[in-house]
Amino acid sequence: MANEFSVTGGAGTLGFTAARALLEHGLSGLMIFDVNPAQAQEKIDGLQAEFPAAKIRSKEVDITDDVAVATAVVDTVETLGSVDILLCFAGVVGCTHAIEMTAAEWRRTLEINTTGSFLCAQAVAKQMIRSGTGGSIVFTASISAHRVNFPQPQVAYNVSKSALLTLKNCLAAEWARYGIRVNSISPGYMDTILNEGSGIAEGRAIWANRNPMGRMGIPGELTGAVVLLSSSAGSYLNGTPYPSRLLRTSY
Q1: What is the pLDDT of residues 139-188, one digit of tens each?
Q2: Burial label, 55 (beta-carbon count in 10 A; 0-12, 13-18, 19+)
Q3: What is the pLDDT of residues 2-26, one digit of tens each?
Q4: How many distinct helices (H) and strands (E) make up the chain?
Q5: Kind of pairing, strands 55-60 and 180-185?
Q6: Which of 55, 99, 167, 175 is close enough to 180 for a disulfide, judged by CB 3.0 to 4.6 Å?
Q7: By three-state DSSP, how is residue 210 classified?
Q8: Average pLDDT estimate for 34-55
Q9: From CA 58, how far away is CA 37, in angstroms rounded?
């Protein structure tokens, strides 16, 4: 694998783990988009030291700003030479009962999780079409896109992730003629900072009890699907939810 790629939410646990996996498989260039990459600069510097042959850079990007996204993608092409892979990991989650949710909270969740993913995919696809080399785009959906979570109330999050599945299908159909593959993964409950804290201890116990494996997933367990979808090994996978079946860990 000698491609250049961007990852949104790349300073977060899942995005960073996916980036490392692709570097381990020979990725030559990496651009990390994050709303606050400075908070992970030490980790990013460590990744560059670990993979000195790769060009690793980061950009502060608000993925809900279409102009900022388009500019960042153009800058990425100028810096790395091309953009061949896009991984969309940026997202937010909130647990608010539907009856109490404000319009602002609803809009913010969909704006980041769904609209932000679309804007990034659109900007990257324009560059892929211009280069004529095609590429791979991978959205991060969730088990929440397939089943309603329990016991936490998170209607906005569930809807935003369900929308990504249809978005993936639409873009896969529209962009296949350009050699662009669009797929998604649907992780189950992952043991990351989003699922930490005493406030959700009861929820964690319920999730584990409802899972035959009796535990949450760890970030490294997503990387096999990410590498498959990003590389030539997945060259005939387009618009498929297949990896999500591997990654649903509890309902």
Answers
A1: 999 888 888 877 778 899 999 999 999 999 999 999 999 999 999 998 87
A2: middle
A3: 566 667 777 788 888 999 999 999 9
A4: 9, 6
A5: unpaired
A6: 175
A7: coil
A8: 91
A9: 7
Structure tokens that stand for 247 in this block: 């990654």
Which among 160, 109, 108 has a CA at the least distance from the CA of 139? 160
Dig out the tokens for 87 from the structure: 């991984």
- Is the C-alpha dihedral spanning 72, 229, 92, 29 positive or negative? negative
Residues 6+ apart with CB under 8 A from 38: 60
pLDDT at 243 (0 to 100): 45
What's this model's pTM, rounded to 2 decimal places?
Answer: 0.88
The pLDDT, as a whole number, for residue 196 is: 59
Buried b (16+ CB within 10 A) or exposed e, 208-222: eeebeeeebbebebb
Instruction: Classify burial at 49, counting beta carbons within 10 Å of its beta carbon; exposed 0-12, middle 13-18, buried 19 or more.
Output: exposed
Of 211, 204, 128, 115, nearest in space to 159 by CA: 115
Residues 6+ apart with CB under 8 A from 193: 12, 13
User: Angle formed by the axes of helices 66-80 and 116-131, to 10°?
Assistant: 40
Confidence band of 208 (pLDDT split at 50, 70, 90):
low
Instruction: Give all domains of the chain, ordered by start, each with its CATH number.
Output: 4-247 (3.40.50.720)
Q: What are the catalytic residues?
A: 142, 157, 161
Q: By the 8 A CB rule, do 102 and 152 touch? A: no
Do the beta carbons of residue 32 and residue 44 sit within 8 Å?
yes
